[in-house]
């Protein structure tokens, strides 16, 4: 494996970390429209808190997919064709949720808005569940042939770890979203988000323990690299504790960073466990390694140069856009939906 | 499956065509709308006339609807290469992924961040800064087109590559050659300018309906004038760039060109041009036709002489050229002649019509005697023209992409080899039905909301039904 190949494996990991950190709270806000909002006004206020951001946040996923295609094409080809039905459902969730923002703004009747708000809720719940399910299924190993085709069976997709992983990822996104709401809204929404998170955190810790136990038994993470897997697993829990601390002490920024870091460490745990493979086959001889999945050194060099130029610019305006919308949203006043 | 020709390959091809054509309704429209709205907002910032702000906001609503549907259908495309065409992704990974990744990093982030800023900061930032948001969004949409076309152009006309002797896959040799691909720089201007025409005719057509309803006539007339100016330049340049692109096709993909003209046997010299004809694609023969002498020579060589090669001759040549490597896979090299012949006529017909319409429109719309509201027949013509650009764009896509048959990457890789070995007919049938249902919903809702927006007119700003708010829930409003 060359340094550039390693760099791109790490970069894809970083892009997924960015995606889960950012879009994680979007999903959580989408879910909380049915959990802490009591009327349509409040739902629309919640929607407005992510209105300017969700599209940019989702672009992290699109970029991760593109980066995977460009730098590790054999991974992209095997993973995406292998998880056909699951990704199809994931795309359906993204589509319905994606249009819900604009369509809610255009719907004029209460019923019309309500329909698209339901789409926001359903899409925001299904998307993280399905995506986490795919990742937690993938790391357990799937049936593959020598050409790198993944013939994923039903029980390889749907099993205890993938379901627990899906639920835990969804729950963590919800907690993260509630922390975001605490930071971005005022009044009752802010308070209800805090109250709900006080209940959800203990559930989350239980979920994380079950998750860790299942990862220990169902994957080879702890046999392949015991120390790093253990440290990262502990970091997931520590970050969640930080978020819980922020919740109890009513420190909103710390809570958001805590829950965001938990999501980030989940992604890092998976990439750390995968390394140096990108696809794990039930027959180890068919697993795809980074060095076999990678594009040519020339392509990787070009991509690296391009990324070094573009990424800092992108991060600059991306962060600036959050600065512009730093004000809290409320159910009254300027909001679009 | 069912022995009805529902092969995995056909289902996957159908899905690609369906998802791309649907996505491609919104792409040119959004590119064009973004550009025209940026012009409108520029007029507002420069002239400080509020009517241009009203214009920007009103047409902005239609733009945002199209943009939203364009984004969500675009994600399907990125996933689809991996899901349905994994062998293609493996074969092309070294070249195809890079433009896609750059497109995401450069263009998608620009579009998505700045459109968010544009939507929500009308009252938060100064007009000049706000204007920069729509221009950055618009530039983002165009940059996006460059990169996806860079990837597509390789499929039409491979440049800057070598075949890896071990894996038999393409290997990038020269990235600048991929970007300098002549195909790219012929297609890009054609597509961008056609996108401007698309948006211009939708704005003109919707304005026509607005004037027919006798609402806000001055507003719609002004919108129509902006649109007609864009339409005139755009349709003229679309025709010119279309011709440039055709010259490239004649050189690179003679089969595609012969099919768009429906020629099986080599023509006489000078070559006559068939306006319409019947085609017997089974026996490779042309039936009845109406011809104009000299025109095909002029179109092909820009002079009134020279014969044009027919598909039968080209088929023989391609057999000689490719059979050594692909003979066992490819029976013959004919492309679907009827679809190409008619698509080409629909596309060029609509393009030429647009040029005439925009000249007429500017004449009727001229400032001194602008009485376009009295010409109801003209307003109806424009009103129905709304749909034509979408048909024209689809026809253009069909000519370009079907004309590649049987290749997915011209001369290098066949469509049949590219499909995912893991795909099953059941999966593909399910996903086709699901996508079709989704698209019906999205397309229907998009048209419905656009119509609603038009019915309310540009002065409408708010809710038609007051939201039912619980008065006891006052604390929610703190």
What is the ordering of alpha helices and beta strands of chain A? Answer: HHHHHHHHHHHHEEHH
Instruction: Count every helix of chain B, treating DSSP H or I runs of 4 or more residues as helices.
Output: 15
Tell me roughly what share of residues is in helical segments of chain B: 55-70%
Helical segment count of chain A: 14
How many domain units of chain A?
Answer: 1
- Strand composition percent of chain A: under 5%
- Helix/strand/pairing class of chain A, anyone? mainly alpha
What composes the largest sheet of chain B? 2 strands, antiparallel
Intertermini distance of chain B: 61 Å
**Average pLDDT number of chain A:** 95
Strand content of chain B: 5-15%
What gyration radius of chain A follows from the Cα positions, in whole Å?
20 Å
Sheet bearing the most strands of chain A, described?
Answer: 2 strands, antiparallel
Instruction: Give the % helix of chain A.
Output: over 70%
Describe the structure in brief.
Chain A is an all-alpha fold and 337 residues long. Chain A has helices spanning 3-32, 40-50, 54-71, 73-82, 84-106, 110-138, 154-157, 160-184, 187-218, 221-224, 226-248, 252-274, 290-293, 297-324, and strands at 277-279, 288-289.
How would you describe the overall organization of this protein?
- Chain A is mainly alpha-helical.
- Chain A has helices at 3-32, 40-50, 54-71, 73-82, 84-106, 110-138, 154-157, 160-184, 187-218, 221-224, 226-248, 252-274, 290-293, 297-324, and strands spanning 277-279, 288-289.
- In chain A, β1 and β2 form a beta hairpin.
- The longest helix of chain B has 40 residues, at 8-47.
- In chain B, α7 packs across α8 (254-260).
- At the A-B interface, α2, α3, α4, α5 and α9 of A face α2, α3 and α15 of B.
């Amino acid at each position: 494996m060359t340094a550039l190949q390693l760099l791109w494996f790490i970069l894809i990991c970083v892009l997924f970390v960015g995606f889960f950190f950012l879009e994680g709270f979007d999903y959580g806000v989408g879910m909380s429209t049915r959990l802490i909002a009591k009327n349509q006004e409040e739902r629309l206020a919640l929607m407005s808190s992510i209105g300017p951001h969700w599209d940019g946040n989702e672009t992290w996923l699109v970029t991760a997919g593109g980066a995977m295609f460009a730098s590790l094409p054999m991974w992209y080809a095997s993973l995406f064709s292998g998880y056909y039905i699951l990704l199809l459902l994931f795309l359906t969730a993204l589509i319905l949720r994606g249009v819900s923002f604009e369509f809610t703004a255009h719907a004029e009747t209460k019923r019309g808005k309500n329909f698209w708000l339901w789409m926001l809720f359903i899409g925001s719940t299904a998307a993280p569940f399905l995506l986490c399910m795919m990742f937690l299924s993938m790391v357990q190993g799937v049936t593959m042939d020598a050409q790198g085709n993944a013939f994923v069976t039903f029980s390889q997709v749907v099993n205890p770890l993938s379901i627990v992983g899906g639920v835990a990822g969804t729950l963590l996104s919800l907690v993260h979203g509630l922390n975001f709401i605490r930071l971005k809204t005022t009044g009752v929404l802010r308070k209800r988000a805090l109250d709900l998170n006080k209940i959800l955190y203990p559930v989350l810790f239980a979920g994380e323990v079950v998750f860790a136990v299942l990862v220990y038994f169902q994957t080879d993470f702890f046999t392949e690299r015991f120390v790093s897997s253990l440290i990262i697993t502990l970091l997931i829990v520590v970050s969640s504790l930080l978020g819980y601390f922020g919740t109890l002490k009513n420190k909103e920024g710390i809570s958001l960073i805590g829950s965001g870091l938990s999501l980030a460490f989940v992604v890092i745990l998976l990439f750390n466990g995968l390394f140096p493979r990108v696809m794990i086959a039930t027959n180890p001889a068919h697993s795809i390694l980074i060095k076999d999945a990678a594009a040519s050194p020339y392509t990787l060099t070009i991509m690296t140069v391009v990324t070094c130029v573009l990424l800092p610019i992108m991060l600059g305006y991306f962060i600036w856009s959050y600065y512009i919308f730093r004000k809290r949203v409320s159910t009254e006043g300027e909001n679009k939906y | 499956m069912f022995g009805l020709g529902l092969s995995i390959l056909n289902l996957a091809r159908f899905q690609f065509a369906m998802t791309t054509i649907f996505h491609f309704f919104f792409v040119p429209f959004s590119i064009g709308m973004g550009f025209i709205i940026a012009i409108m907002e520029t007029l507002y910032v420069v002239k400080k006339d509020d009517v241009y702000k009203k214009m920007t906001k009103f047409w902005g609503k239609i733009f945002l609807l199209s943009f939203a549907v364009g984004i969500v259908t675009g994600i399907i495309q990125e996933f689809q290469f991996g899901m349905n065409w994994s062998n293609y992704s493996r074969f092309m990974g070294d070249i195809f992924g890079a433009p896609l990744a750059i497109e995401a990093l450069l263009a998608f982030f620009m579009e998505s961040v700045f459109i968010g800023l544009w939507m929500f900061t009308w009252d938060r930032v100064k007009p000049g800064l706000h204007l920069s948001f729509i221009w950055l969004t618009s530039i983002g949409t165009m940059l996006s087109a460059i990169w996806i076309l860079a990837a597509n152009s390789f499929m039409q006309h491979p440049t800057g590559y070598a075949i890896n002797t071990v894996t038999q896959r393409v290997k990038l040799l020269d990235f600048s050659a991929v970007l300098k691909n002549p195909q790219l720089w012929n297609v890009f201007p054609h597509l961008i300018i056609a996108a401007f025409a698309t948006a211009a005719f939708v704005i003109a057509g919707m304005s026509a309906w607005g004037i027919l309803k006798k609402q806000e006539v001055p507003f719609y007339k002004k919108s129509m004038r902006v649109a007609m100016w864009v339409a005139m330049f755009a349709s003229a340049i679309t025709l010119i760039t279309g011709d440039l692109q055709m010259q490239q096709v004649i050189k690179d993909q003679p089969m595609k060109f012969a099919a768009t003209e429906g020629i099986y046997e080599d023509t006489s010299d000078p070559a006559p041009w068939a306006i319409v004809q019947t085609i017997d694609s089974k026996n490779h023969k042309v039936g009845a036709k109406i011809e104009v002498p000299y025109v095909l020579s002029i179109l092909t060589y820009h002079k009134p002489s020279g014969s044009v090669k027919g598909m039968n001759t080209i088929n023989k040549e391609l057999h000689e050229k490719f059979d050594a490597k692909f003979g066992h896979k490819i029976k013959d090299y004919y492309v679907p002649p009827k679809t190409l012949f008619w698509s080409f006529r629909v596309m060029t017909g609509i393009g030429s019509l647009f040029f005439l319409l925009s000249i007429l429109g500017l004449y009727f719309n001229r400032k001194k005697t602008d009485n376009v509201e009295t010409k109801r027949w003209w307003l109806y013509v424009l009103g129905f023209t709304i749909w034509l650009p979408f048909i024209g764009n689809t026809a253009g896509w069909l000519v370009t992409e079907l004309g590649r048959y049987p290749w997915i990457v011209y001369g290098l890789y066949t469509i049949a080899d590219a499909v995912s070995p893991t795909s099953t007919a059941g999966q593909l049938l399910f996903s086709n039905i699901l996508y079709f249902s989704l698209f019906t919903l999205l397309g229907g809702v998009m048209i419905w909301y656009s119509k609603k927006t038009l019915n309310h007119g540009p002065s409408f700003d708010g809710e038609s039904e007051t939201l039912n708010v619980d008065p006891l829930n006052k604390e929610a409003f703190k």
